[in-house]
């Protein structure tokens, strides 16, 4: 039986796809497998084809890899190798897998003899099992055998052959004669123009096969180079001759025709026609038809290839919405379906669908109707809040109340919680714990500095780079419709007149509006009423009024030293050691070290800086531990020092105490807040409250000059307008009090005075230093210092009444830090003080006053 030798038998199937270059590609692939492909072998292949393409006598000097130069006239009787997939075109390599041992032996014999040739003939009918020359085409190709390795045979097509007689059956052996092309006039314009048309079509073949994948690149680049070669040749001829296209150009027309046919993916019998055609012009025409068809086929393939991701993505979108179709609001579903129809239309018109894709991707990716189940178990919530945070009794209580309302109503929404307090007091982490307690997803949106409503509401219009707003992005990220969303730093909203983010936030937070929140990019309304919003702010004064109205403010004032000690010991040290991979038993941070850290390094209200300092300590310990483990010392060094030392070092426990703390965290950054041990005349300690927490501040007044009617007050210290007014009020009130007490005292009438609030680089404002200013002025007027270790705060009216102040807890803590023993607060703040935990009040002598007169008594009513 006649066994055809085709790609089918090859280790790499030639019939992988139908791109025009597949045939050539697979030839090259198989070739590369045979010859251990590398760059130089690739060049050889290319050169081999080029030489056959450009030399009119390929048999003599065609290929760098064909070592011998056999005489083709000796090859009249050859083994006939039947080909099934297509004829062997002269100039092309073909790897074969020959299974028949007799044929293989015959080929081996040819290869080792003087005439390493066989005949390659296309089978007329693949299925015909008979063994005779009648089943193969009579015109074939003289195939030079280049290599035989096992069953793998590589041949290259050389000349056209015609069978004249059958000589043997097993293996099939035939007598042939070599076919010569008919003579032609190479200057004939018609044949030349056909030739150039083939070149032009070959360029199109290269262009339209740009979708080849990485692995096809060897072949792709081979043919691109070939086409470039052809074009360059044409250009060079044009320039060299300067005589135009049709003159002095000596191309090898028949080889170009063969090349075009060889790379085309046409039916094998069509390629056989090219092989059999000896009229060169006719052959070029046949090739032209094949190459034209190839270009058309490539274009269709290109289109389908580009269509694939489009249809694939549309299918993904459809699949995505299928299970939630019922839950997607009707108006949104309508838009999605309109977009699908639009994509179909665009595909039919070969347009770009990128923008719509982005849009539909967003629309279909939102968690329509997908909610996590709320957990309203108050006991569990309490446990979680306690697990994550020390203290914060009031805050936790308020949150538990909020959850309790959720238990009863089945919905924790309603007022928006705003956690307000200085940095690092745990606002963000409390919000996280609430999400954990409720079993809701958590997402944080930083709105500080947000200056454009589009950050929240999205970009208008679907243009390149347009995106939805942060809220939509957050929903997509968390994948549920009811996450807990933390709007961080809501007091630091930026403002741009035209595109005010405040309005957008209002729309987001207002329960009346957020059930149909419109994102400009999505252009459909979405329901945000299930989202639980929690905001954070350092101070509530800066939150726009309409937003603040919708919030339930929970204040986190900051921590006392005692609370910080607990947080540090029971939370931060444990968290940080875990993060650094250090076991608790490897380190002992003593209470004195922690206390020193709190008092001398981290005095602010929160504990973030404290956490950073503890991290510093543990990072240093981690480095020491790793250094100890690493075999840093040479054998010589360690043997000299004794190996015992290293093992004891590994087991060493790091003891951090007050004395070695500086080795880990550097020198203390704080000196005492107290500038004066005993405040001099004209100086009084006040208490201030900033977004960073509470602090003490001194009011200093000094005499400048005296003269009748010269009484006035000069004010410095970077004071805001309210504080400046306070100083003026204080001057008037002090003058009246002095007059009441001693009408003959003309100090205020005749003295030019200067009032200053130190740390002039820090801006200060607010009315609560009023009473401190009056006291400072009176101290100067009476030349009597105020009582030692006394601090005060309170706004004063012109008639001397004392009005309440804000930030009582923070101010109390600041006073304690400065070792103040006595504090004067407005009577109206008594209730706030009573609500403070005992640890805050311990050891303090606090006075509550209504009238300045009472302060006067407390400050100056002592014997000097
Ligand atoms: N009471 C506490 N108990 C335990 N850890 C706390 C407590 N308060 C704060 N922390 C920890 O302090 C660190 C800082 O807290 P967080 O980031 O929540 O502060 P914040 O108030 O949100 O600050 P900012 O205003 O700068 O965003 C976190 O690691 C947090 O866990």
TrEMBL record:
The keyword Endoplasmic reticulum does not apply. This is Lon protease homolog. Pfam families: AAA, Lon_C, Lon_lid, LON_substr_bdg. PANTHER family: LON PROTEASE, LON PROTEASE HOMOLOG. Residues 78-295 form the Lon N-terminal domain. The keyword Nucleotide-binding applies. Belongs to the peptidase S16 family. It comes from Brassica rapa subsp. trilocularis. The lineage of its organism: Eukaryota, Viridiplantae, Streptophyta, Embryophyta, Tracheophyta.
């Amino acid at each position: 039986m006649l066994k055809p030798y085709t790609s089918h038998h090859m280790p790499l199937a030639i019939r992988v796809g139908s791109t025009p270059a597949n045939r050539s590609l697979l030839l090259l692939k198989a070739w590369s497998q045979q010859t251990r492909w590398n760059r130089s072998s690739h060049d050889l292949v290319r050169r081999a084809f080029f030489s056959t393409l450009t030399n009119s006598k390929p048999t003599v000097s065609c290929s760098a890899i064909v070592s011998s130069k056999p005489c083709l006239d000796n090859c009249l009787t050859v083994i006939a190798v039947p080909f099934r997939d297509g004829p062997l075109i002269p100039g092309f390599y073909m790897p074969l897998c020959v299974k028949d041992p007799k044929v293989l032996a015959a080929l081996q014999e040819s290869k080792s003899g003087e005439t390493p040739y066989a005949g390659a003939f296309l089978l007329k009918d693949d299925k015909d099992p008979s063994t005779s020359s009648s089943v193969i085409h009579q015109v074939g190709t003289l195939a030079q055998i280049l290599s035989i390795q096992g069953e793998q045979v590589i041949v290259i097509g050389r000349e056209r052959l015609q069978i004249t007689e059958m000589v043997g059956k097993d293996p099939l052996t035939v007598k042939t004669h070599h076919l010569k092309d008919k003579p032609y006039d190479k200057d004939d314009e018609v044949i030349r123009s056909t030739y150039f048309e083939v070149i032009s079509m070959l360029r199109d073949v290269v262009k339209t096969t740009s979708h080849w994948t990485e692995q096809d690149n060897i072949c792709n680049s081979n043919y691109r180079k070939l086409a470039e070669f052809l074009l360059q040749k044409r250009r060079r001829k044009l320039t060299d001759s300067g005589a135009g296209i049709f003159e002095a150009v000596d191309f090898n027309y028949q080889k170009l025709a063969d090349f075009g046919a060889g790379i085309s993916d046409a039916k094998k019998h069509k390629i056989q026609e090219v092989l059999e055609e000896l009229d060169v012009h006719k052959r070029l025409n046949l090739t032209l038809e094949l190459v034209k068809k190839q270009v058309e086929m490539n274009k269709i393939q290109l289109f389908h290839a580009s269509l694939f991701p489009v249809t694939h993505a549309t299918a993904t979108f459809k699949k995505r919405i299928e299970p939630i179709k019922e839950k997607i609001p009707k108006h949104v579903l309508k838009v999605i379906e309109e977009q699908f129809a639009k994509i179909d239309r665009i595909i039919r018109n070969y347009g770009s669908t990128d923008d719509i894709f982005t849009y539909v991707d967003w629309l279909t990716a939102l968690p329509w109707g997908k909610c996590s189940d709320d957990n309203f178990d108050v006991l569990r919530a309490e446990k979680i809040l306690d697990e994550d945070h020390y203290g914060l009794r009031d805050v936790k209580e308020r949150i538990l109340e909020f959850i309790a309302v959720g238990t009863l109503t089945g919905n924790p929404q309603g007022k928006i919680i705003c956690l307000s307090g200085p940095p690092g007091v745990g606002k963000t982490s409390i919000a996280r714990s609430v999400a954990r307690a409720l079993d809701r997803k958590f997402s944080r949106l930083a709105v500080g500095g947000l200056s454009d409503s589009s950050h929240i509401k999205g970009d208008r219009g679907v243009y390149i780079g347009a995106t939805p707003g942060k809220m939509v992005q957050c929903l997509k990220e968390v994948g549920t419709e009811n996450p807990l969303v933390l709007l961080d730093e809501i007091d630091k909203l930026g403002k741009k007149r035209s595109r005010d983010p405040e309005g957008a936030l209002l729309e987001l937070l207002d329960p009346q509006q957020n059930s149909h929140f419109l994102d400009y990019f999505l252009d459909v309304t979405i329901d945000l009423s299930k989202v639980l919003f929690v905001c954070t702010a350092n101070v509530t004064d800066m939150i726009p009024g309409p937003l603040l109205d919708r919030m339930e403010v929970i204040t986190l004032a900051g921590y006392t030293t005692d609370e910080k000690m607990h947080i540090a010991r029971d939370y931060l040290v444990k968290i940080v050691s875990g993060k650094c991979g250090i076991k608790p038993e490897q380190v002992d941070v003593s209470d004195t070290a922690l206390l020193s850290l709190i008092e001398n390094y981290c005095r602010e209200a929160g504990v973030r800086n404290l956490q950073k300092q503890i991290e510093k300590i543990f990072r240093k310990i981690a480095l020491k531990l790793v250094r100890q483990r690493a075999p840093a010392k040479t054998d010589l060094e360690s043997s000299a020092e004794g190996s015992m030392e290293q093992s004891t070092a590994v087991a060493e426990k790091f003891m951090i105490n007050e004395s070695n703390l500086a080795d880990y965290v550097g020198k203390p950054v704080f000196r005492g807040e107290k500038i004066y041990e005993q405040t001099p005349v004209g100086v009084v300690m006040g208490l201030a409250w900033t977004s960073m927490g509470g602090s003490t501040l001194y009011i200093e007044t000094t005499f400048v000059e005296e003269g009748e009617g010269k009484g006035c007050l000069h004010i410095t210290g970077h004071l805001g307008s309210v504080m400046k007014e306070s100083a003026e009020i204080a001057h008037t009130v002090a003058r009246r009090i002095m007059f009441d007490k001693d009408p003959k005292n003309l100090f205020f009438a005749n003295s030019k005075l200067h009032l200053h609030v130190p740390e002039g680089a820090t801006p200060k404002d607010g009315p609560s230093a009023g009473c401190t200013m009056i006291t400072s002025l009176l101290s100067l007027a009476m030349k009597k210092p105020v009582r030692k270790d006394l601090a005060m705060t309170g706004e004063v009216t012109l008639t001397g009444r004392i009005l309440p102040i804000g930030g009582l807890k923070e101010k109390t803590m600041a006073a304690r830090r400065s070792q103040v023993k006595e504090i004067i607060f407005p009577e109206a703040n008594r209730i706030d003080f009573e609500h403070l935990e005992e640890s805050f009040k311990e050891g303090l002598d606090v006075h509550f006053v209504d009238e300045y007169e009472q302060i006067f008594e407390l400050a100056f009513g002592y014997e000097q």
